[in-house]
Target: Bifunctional NAD(P)H-hydrate repair enzyme
Amino acid sequence: MFIVTAKEMYDIDHCTMQKIGFGKLLMENAGREVARKISQRARVTDKLLVVVGPGNNGGDGFVVARTLLNEQFDVKVLQAVPDEKLSEQVQFYKNLYHACGGEYVAFDGDGAWKKAIAEADIVVDALLGIGIKGAVRKGLDAVVTCINERAKKVLAVDIPSGLPADEGLTDFTAVKADETIIIAAPKISTFLPHTAGYYGKWEVVSIGHPAKLFAKSATRFIADSNYFQRTMPKRNLDAHKGSHGKGLVIGGSDHMPGSFAMTLRAALRAGAGLITAASTEKVIDGIANLTPEAMYQTIASNDGWLTTGDLPLDGKDAVAIGIGMGRHADTAKLLQKAVNASACPLIIDGDGLYHLQNNLHLLKQRKHPTILTPHMGEMARLLQVDISELAIKPFHYAKVFAEKYNVYIVLKGRFTIITAPDGRQAVNTTGNQGLAKGGSGDVLTGIVLSMVMQPQSIFQALCNACFVHGMSADLQIASGHTYYDLLATDVIEGIAGVYRHFLDPKNS
Ligand SMILES: NC(=O)C1=CN([C@@H]2O[C@H](COP(=O)(O)OP(=O)(O)OC[C@H]3O[C@@H](n4cnc5c(N)ncnc54)[C@H](OP(=O)(O)O)[C@@H]3O)[C@@H](O)[C@H]2O)[C@H](O)CC1
Ligand SMILES: [K+]
Model:
C-alpha cells in the first residue's frame, strides 16, 4: 500500500480525472465507498449527520449522504458554508442529494446545528480534506470544536478535518475521529507521532485510481504482509549452515551482558546460518550456555569495557556492533575500527550509535552497506536536532541523513520508518505497546543481522526484519500475552509463529 503526500495525491487525482478521464466519477466513487463502510457500521435506527465543507471533501460528503439516504438511513446534511462557497463539482453533488429528497440542518446563528451534532449517533466529518491550509479558519473552527466536544461518534472522510496531510506542521485544530475512511492511500500524517492519533482506527478504500499512477508518483509504501510474503526468500532443500550467512555480533560489556545475548538468539531464531559473538571473557562466560548454537570469541577489553583490538571480521557476511557495548572512550576506537575494516554490511545499534556521533565522516568512506537502527532519541543526537523537531518531520530527516551519509536507517518508533541511501522509504505498521520494553531493540538488531544475510536486497531485508519483529509481538499478544507481560525474549520465541503464519500457510 502506497503512502502519499497531499501533492502526490493531487497529482494522482488530477491525472485520473483529466488524462484517464474519470472526471466527476472519482468523487462519486469516493462517496459511495465511504458510504458503504459507514453502512456496515451504522444501525438502521442511527441518526446520521454529514457535516460538509466547501471543497471536494464536502463533495464526498454529499455523495455519502445521498447514498445513505437511498439506503433508507436517517441522514441529514449540515452544510457549514454558504452555497456560493461550494465549487461547481460540489454543487453538482449537492443538487443530486437535494433532488433525491435530501434534508438539511441549518447552519444558523441560534446554534440548533450544535444540538444536531450532539444528538447524532454518528457524525460524518466531510468538512475539510487534504486541501487544508494552516489552522482552520474562523467559523469552521467552531464546527471542529463542537464535533470534538459533543459528537457521540465521528467517522472522518479521507482525513480528520483540520489535520495536515503532510509532516512538519504542528499549528492545527483538528477533528479527533473515532474512525477514518481514508480515500485511495494513507497520507504521511497517518504515521506521525503527533497526528496519527487523530485518525482513530483507519482503513483505506480504493476508488478507481490506476495503480500505475501510485507507482509513478508515490515514493513511500507500507511494508505489509503482502510485501513480506512476496520478498522473503524461501529456504531450499540443499541449504547448509553456510547458506544463510555467517554473522558477527560485537557488543556487550561486563556491566551489560543481557542485551547482547538477546541479539545473538534473535539472529539465529530469525534464520542466520552461523553467528559469532565477540565480547569480553566475563560476558561470554555468563551467556554462552544461553545460546549454545552461537560461537563465542573473546576480544580485547579494559575494566570490563570493550576496547580496540583484533576483530574476527574475516569471512563474515554481516556484522552488528553496539549492543550493550557501553560508552567508554576506548570503545569508540573499536567502533571506528569496525566501520573502517568490515567489508560487508555493518549494522550499528545502541551505544555504537553513541560513538558514531563523532565519527560520521567515516561513513562516506565505506564501500559496503551501513545500517543504522536508532530510536528517535538516538537519531536526534546524530542529527543534532531536538527530538521534538525530529518527531514532527521524521520522514524528511531520515531521508536527508540517509542520502548525506549513504546509509540505510531503521528509525524505530510506533511506526518504524525504513530509509535507503537513495531516499526510498517504507513504513512498518506491525508491533504494539508491549514492545516498549528493554531489549526490544536488541532483538530487532538480531533479526536485521539475519535478514541482511539472506538473498534479498538490503532494503527488503530491513522491511522484512521490522515486519517480523512487530508481527511476532502482535501474534504473542493475540495468543495470550498482554502489553504488560510481553518480554523481548517472548518476541524472539514468537518469530517461528510469524514464519509459520505467513510463509508456510499449511502449517499456520
Ligand atoms: N480531487 C478530486 O477530485 C478528489 C478529491 N477527493 C476529496 O477531496 C479532498 C480534497 O479536496 P480539496 O477541494 O482540494 O480540499 P478540501 O476539501 O480539503 O477543501 C478545500 C477548501 O477548504 C478551504 N480551506 C482551506 N484551508 C482552510 C482553512 N484553514 N480553514 C477553512 N477552510 C479552508 C479552501 O478554501 P480556499 O479559500 O483556500 O480555497 C477550499 O475551499 C480530499 O481530501 C478528498 O476527500 C475525493 O475523495 C477523490 C476525488
Ligand atoms: K474530513
User: Anything to note?
Assistant: The chain has a mean pLDDT of 95. The CA atoms of residues 48 and 75 lie 5 Å apart. Residues 2-218 form a domain with the Rossmann fold fold (CATH 3.40.50.10260). The longest helix spans residues 458-478.
